[in-house]
Specification:
Protein name: Quaternary ammonium compound efflux SMR transporter SugE
Largest sheet: none
Oligomer: single chain
Keywords: Cell membrane, Membrane, Transmembrane, Transmembrane helix, Transport
Shape: flat
Structural class: mainly alpha
Mean pLDDT: 93
Number of domains: 1
Strand content: under 5%
Membrane topology: Multi-pass membrane protein
Organism: Halomarina halobia
Helix content: over 70%
Order of helices and strands: HHHH
Subcellular location: Cell membrane
């Protein structure tokens, strides 16, 4: 169940990171409220995950998935640069996260 909590926490991390783009510096109330809610849910789920997962592994996986998801969302939602090197570095993050998952022991 801890890995499920962690994956959900990472999904909400992607939501709040993307949501920041819509808050206009936290000046738009609805996007700001949704972004802050996603932050809270993400943190609560991460806290549940680390009850049984090693904090170093859980935090690295959480941030890795969040970074990959946010980078990909930026390309598709906001027209950020698409390049082979950009996607290669994103792939390296995926490899690192996968390695941490495989070696976590849970």
């Amino acid at each position: 169940m801890s890995w499920t909590y962690l994956l959900l926490a990472a999904a909400f991390e992607i939501c709040w990171a993307v949501g920041l783009e819509f808050t206009d510096g936290f000046s738009r109330p609805v996007p700001t409220a949704l972004t802050v809610a996603a932050m809270a849910v993400s943190m609560l789920l991460l806290a549940r995950a680390v009850e049984t997962l090693p904090i170093g592994t859980a935090y690295a996986v959480w941030t890795g998935i969040g970074a990959v998801g946010t980078a990909v969302a930026g390309v598709y939602l906001f027209g950020e640069p698409r390049s082979v090197s950009r996607f290669a570095f994103i792939a390296l993050i995926v490899v690192g996260v996968s390695g941490l998952k495989l070696t976590a022991g849970h």
